[in-house]
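Slack export, channel: ligand-projects

TW: morning all. Re-posting the request from yesterday since it got buried. We need the structure predicted with the small molecule present, not the apo form. The ligand is flavin-adenine dinucleotide; the SMILES is in the block with the sequence. No rush, but it would help planning for next week.
GE: picking it up
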Amino acid sequence: MSDLEAFRTETRDWLDQSCPDSLRGGTGGALAGTWGGRKWKPDNPDQRVWLDRCAERGLTAPTWPTAYGGGGLSKEQAKVLSEEMRALRVPPPLIGFGLTMIGPTLLQYGTEEQKQEHLPPICRGEIRWCQGYSEPGAGSDLAGLQCRAEDRGDHYIINGSKIWTSDADQADWIFALVRTDPQAKKQEGITFLLIDMETPGVTVSPIKLISGSSPFCETHFENVKAWKKNVVFKEHAGWTVAKALLGHERTMVAEAFGSGAGGARRTLADRARSHLPGVQEGQPLPDAVLRSQIARMEMDTQAFGLTMQRSRDAAKAGHQPGAESSIFKVVGTELNQRRQELLLKIAGPQALGWEGAGFAPDELQTTRDWLRSRGNTIEGGTSEVQRNVIAKRVLGLPD
Ligand SMILES: Cc1cc2nc3c(=O)[nH]c(=O)nc-3n(C[C@H](O)[C@H](O)[C@H](O)COP(=O)(O)OP(=O)(O)OC[C@H]3O[C@@H](n4cnc5c(N)ncnc54)[C@H](O)[C@@H]3O)c2cc1C
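GE: finished. pasting the full token output, ligand included:
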């Protein structure tokens, strides 16, 4: 038996013994999983058990070094682990911006002290992070940000606002871009700073959305004191760090939404059958147009999944995401929007609402997911902006 096969057997046995029954066979979903943090209240106490057991073995961040709470696994072992988790249909023990954005960025740019301070609590699900990039006047033109950090020796005093800060009301820390040199060229006067959300002067106001839920917030800083030891990389050099983090973000968004958004869910064909009385499981769908749309969607999703797998393998081998993450972002998010449109079509009149009696539980989620998917081609940088990046940095076209 090869080492990898032995690892698979050991992993399968461990998962079988360690994953609580109530979490198996779940319905998945792009954002399924535990976000953790000080404010987290599990819906099911088994989520905490599952998180703690995985964190103890470093399996919340399988490829991170063990010194920072990771599992120290090779890319092949990490792939085996995710295959075995998928086979059991268990949600990841932990998800969130700590694991997918700030963690990888600190591994690349953080000081040893910053890694020691921040990475283990991320792995244990103790601290939840949010992202303070966008401002009312700085979205696509991110380098135009105005949130001001005044130098006071060993610390800064921050004044300004961030907008569209996803889940800021649930987060414990924020990684933020602040302007430390207003005289410099706009990309050169920015610093990447880590700020505790409990610092006096930080306030958060949620923004209500059409889907009824409110994941977005405005985050305000009024005379907030932030220590210079929390600068990542170098003062005024935050743009370099910001771009590296955006590479991780775009890959994460593409992966979360583009790869079928929860392989554990029923297939598109099964969903369609449930809306067609008299069509049994395994029987072909009578509508040839719908059949061909579903087949195309499933093939595109498979092809995208395989391309993402290749990129994950490259990332685990040490390759930092570059401009190709913009291609993944465009394709993955547009794929998800097509899938959500198709699901809406399949659900027919059931998709006209998202609450109340008369709507099947699956379809309540369908309509919410469709509404949520509208933001996919905006978050992490709009599709138009990604196409500009692809034109310049991948295709080498002139301005
Ligand atoms: C679901 C979701 C979650 C988000 N979470 C966060 C978060 O946690 N933290 C955070 O900081 N931000 C977050 N954002 C904000 C997001 O990063 C911005 O919305 C995005 O960068 C676009 O900026 P904007 O909204 O200001 O639009 P604008 O920049 O004003 O763009 C408006 C329109 O103009 C187009 N446009 C602008 N410039 C160009 C150009 N040069 N060429 C071609 N077209 C252009 C855009 O494509 C868009 O269609 C989130 C957004 C969404 C939708």
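GE: first-pass observations. The radius of gyration is 22 Å. The longest strand covers residues 216-227.
TW: perfect, thank you
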